[in-house]
Here is the input.
Amino acid sequence: MFLILSTMTALLECGPLFLGIGLGYGPGQTLSFCLAYQAGNLFPIPFSLRASTLRRITVLSMLLLSLAPFMQAFPFPQWGFYSSGILLLSCATQSIRREMKTRSGTVKKRLSRIAGFLLAPLLAYAPFPLLWLCCLVVLFSLRGLCGYNAASDNSPLSKNRRGTPKFYPLYTIMLWHQLHYFIYAYGLLLHAYQITGNAFFTMLFFAGTWLTYVSAEPLVKLLWRTYPKTFSATSGTSGYINAILTGHAFLLIILMGLPNVSGGLFYCLWILTGFGGGTVFAITALYGHSAAYTKERLVLTENLGHFIGTGLAVLWAHFLPKYLPQLSYPAAFCVFMVIVLAFLAHPSCMKYKAKGIKNL
Here is the structure.
């Protein structure tokens, strides 16, 4: 069930882009659907909702998404219904996935998301049945989660037991990393569609960026094993920081060049961004060396980066709709900040002692 939900979240993340295009929305309004999805993604952490509440908001989402297709004569209310429905459905879906995350491997989860991305264009052709199907999957998952009835007080989702994790400066590198991706990801996806005019062809290239993203970690670790003398500092904070610096320097060069190329070279560079972004595994591993590390704080940082980055992209697309490729410039600035902070965190930096990340 977790893998089905992972596929579904990818469908809900990118599918609304094509829904917005089909409805004739401009770039800013279209990307606002992605912002609605990311707003729903905030609810598992820092918020935690009861299972009974999640069931109610899923039913409300079904109602909103059922009415939206019949409101063509009222464009703004229709946009509001779709946005609210996507937000609520995202909230419920991500809350359930939060409980299931330890039950499946990272590779399977990412491959499931790639499958969802490839299915995303279908939302432009059959939004009503697909969104209803997603709602039904959520309701079924709530009933079956851990063998508890979703309405029961014994359900693991029925107790707000986590509290609200605080944001710490320690996680600033991860925040800038997430900001860079979500500032440019949806905008470039929309730009790629404007070039190809084919939604499925566009998502095939987008899936390619995820394949390189998934490949980055095993590729780096293979290099560490194959050339141990060249990559001598492969353990502890030094090795991970070196991976962050190398990957993000590569990414910085690509992002600066993306607005200045077209055609096949644009798609090639777009796919290659995944190799640089995939070094995020090193950021996570780096934080694991800190006594202040908790999974909840890291997830909160990631979610904030998703939401704020997408929000900035929506503003850019609204006021500068003809300059979507140039979104890679503010994204490049975020990558530059990752490089600066990672460099300052390196044990060899004179500003920090050999304790490495603990001195951030």
